[in-house]
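Q: I'm writing up a methods section and want to include an example of the input and output format. Could you take the sequence below and give the corresponding predicted structure tokens, formatted cleanly so I can copy it straight into the document?
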Amino acid sequence: MRGKTHCLDVWGDFACFTRPEMKVERYSYPVITPSAARGVFDAIYWKKSYGFYWQIEKVEVLAPPRYIALRRNEMKDKAPSERTILAWRDGKEDIEPLWADGVGNDQKGRTQRQTMALKDVRYRLHAYLRFRDNAGEAQTYDAQFERRASHGKCFYQPYFGCREFPTYFELINAGSSDRSPIDLNLDVGWMLYDVFDLRRANDSDVQPSISVFKARVENGVMQIPPYDDPGVKKAGEPAHA
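A: Here is the clean output for your methods example:
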């Protein structure tokens, strides 16, 4: 079962929706991916105990894709587990910082990487709640999302691909905006759909599972098929053209 379709007007100064085939340097897709769009809705309203995920229906491109070359410092190491961080906070374990430039012969630390990002991006995102269970509470969840989004509330700052590229949003009525999609026709080719199996329960131990789909922008609109559509190729399935 599904909820009602919600519409967000989103924009930001920079964005980077990294193409997974780029092994070292980051190179952005020309438009937002379904995974990044779902992340914006998740930041506003989502809990893993709720038994639903955000299904993106379509993306309307409101500003032309323009690239900008950036050089960014990235950490080679990753943050420790939540349990470790909480233990640091409570004084149960000694804090072990992540050193930006490493210590002694330690090769970890920061590294400079070239990034081909987008600038001055703006989209209109359409999505609905897809329920695995608790479908009888669809109206309640829809109302809670609309209340939070209309007041600009979010659990954490949504972002466009990288956390240093914040996303700003506004809840709108799909047919009330006076801004039309731009005149853009683009065959994007195989695009990342998501990095998790959206059919699975919202377990914290779910492993990454890449899916892709053939993306095309027509008259400024990119239609997104449902996750269970045959056109969405999941890990372990052949991705024939």
